[in-house]
Amino acid sequence: MTTKQSIDPTILEKAADWLVLLHSGEMTEQQQLEFQQWQQQHPDHRIAIERATRFNKNFANLPNTLNINQLLNSKTTLQHTILKKFIWILSPVVATWLAYQYLPWQLWQADLSSKTGEVKSITLEDGSSLTLGSNSYVNLHFNDTVREIELIQGEIYIETAKQPPKHKRPFIVETQSGAIQALGTRFSVQQNKPSSSTLVHVFQHAVAIAPDQQTHRTILQQGEMAQFDQDHIQKVEKLQQTQPYWTQHILVVENKPLDQVLTEIYRYRHGQYFIDEAAKSIKVSGVFSLRNTQQSIETLAQTYDLKLNYYSDYVLYVSK
């Protein structure tokens, strides 16, 4: 198995500076020449630009302009939220700067990643199967003593492979909350943001959960799920699904708040939604496509009598 090489953060920082200048529209001919020369000075320079460019593709799909006045006049309740969360849509320069400041090197240097809306499956060197959900990033740390996956962002589903009796290596998923060790199993792990909590679903056998700030482990059995952070594990609950349907681009929900359902749909879709308080707690049940998210949103609107107000292809306000 091959993994991506680590690149000096100072090189990545310089790559980000070049990208900001490149998107500014103010790059001179001399600067363009210097940019080309910098890329040719070392292979890591070119790789850093490629990674930064690939990482910023999501931003490139956003509109260059947004009619803020129209937006605020139409929905005064959105004034502060739109100004705070969507000012970066106005300029690709600002978008690149935000990527540089707040979505930095960990994601750029991830060994494996998936795009927004993509579900990607990989066979690991030990024969285990790893599936990445939309917009997910992982690092792989496999050696003679351990098989470890570091989940930086997103969601993964794992089917572990059997190990030779004389050379068994523990299979561990590390998250911001702690460690999950497979006990011969099929399970999924989701790294939630911005809360930094971790959600675990066990579909076969069991896993052992160890929050960073605890000295003991909790065993999660087949058909169970739990959410945990660095300090504690929340109540273990019964798992309603027998398999991770998201690996097939399907979202199956039963009696879930509308806000949670839209959050899951928007993990597979570019843009952002806002929802009226009166609509957040509407209970939703059904099967929805994660491949055609627009159709899923329209189905929700028809089924639950919702109003959909689009302010661009990437900004949606949902109300009752």
Please state the overall shape, judged from the principal axes of the Cα atoms: flat
CATH architecture of the largest domain, by name, is: Sandwich
Q: What are the secondary-structure elements, in order, as H or E?
A: HHHHHHHHEEEEEEEEEEEEEEHEHEHEE
Q: Mind describing the biggest β-sheet? A: 13 strands, mixed
Low-confidence stretches: 58-94
Question: What's the count of strands?
Answer: 18
Q: Terminal Cα separation, in Å? A: 51 Å
Level of helix content? 25-40%
- Total of helices: 11
Question: DSSP strand (E) fraction?
Answer: 25-35%
Count up the domains: 3
- Roughly how many Å is the radius of gyration? 22 Å
CATH topology of the largest domain: Jelly Rolls
Mean pLDDT: 81
What is the CATH class of the largest domain?
Mainly Beta
| Sheet/helix structural class | alpha+beta
GO molecular function, one term: sigma factor antagonist activity
Domain FecR protein: 111-203
Pfam families: DUF4880 (PF16220), FecR (PF04773)
InterPro entries: FecR, FecR_N, Ferrdict_sens_TM
TL;DR of this structure?
The chain has 320 residues and is of the alpha+beta class. The protein is 32% helix and 31% strand.
Structure description:
This is Histidine kinase. InterPro entries: FecR (IPR006860), FecR_N (IPR032623), Ferrdict_sens_TM (IPR012373). With 320 residues, the chain is an alpha+beta fold. The protein folds into 3 domains: 9-108, no CATH class; 112-238, Sandwich (Jelly Rolls), CATH 2.60.120; 249-319, Phage tail protein beta-alpha-beta fold (3-Layer(bab) Sandwich), CATH 3.55.50. The protein contains 11 helices and 18 strands. Strands 1, 2, 3, 4, 5, 6, 7, 8, 9, 10, 11, 12 and 13 form a 13-stranded mixed sheet that branches. The protein has a 3-stranded mixed sheet with strand order 15-18-17. A hairpin with a 4-residue loop joins strand 4 and strand 5 (147-159). The radius of gyration is 22 Å and the shape is flat. The model is unreliable at 58-94 (pLDDT under 50).
